[in-house]
Amino acid sequence: MTGATETSPWPKALTPDFSALGSGAPLSREMACRLLRSDDEILPHLLGAARAAKERFKPGVITYSRKVFIPLTNLCRDYCGYCIFRRDPGDPGARTLSPEEVLELARQGEKLGCREALFSLGDKPELLFGEMRDTLRRLGYKSTLHYLEAMCELVLQETALLPHPNPGLMSTGWILRLSAVSPSMGLMLETTNAGLLRSGAAHDNAPDKLPAKRLRTIEAAGKQGVPFTTGLLIGIGETIEDRVDTLLAIRDLHDRYGHIQEIIVINDWGGVSPLTPDFINPEKPWPHLEQLRLRTEAKGFKLEQRLPVYPEFLPRILDRPGLLADRVRASADSQGYARRAA
Ligand code: SF4
Question: Counting C-beta atoms within 10 Å of the first and last residue's C-beta, which end of the chain has fewer, N or C?
Answer without folding.
Answer: C
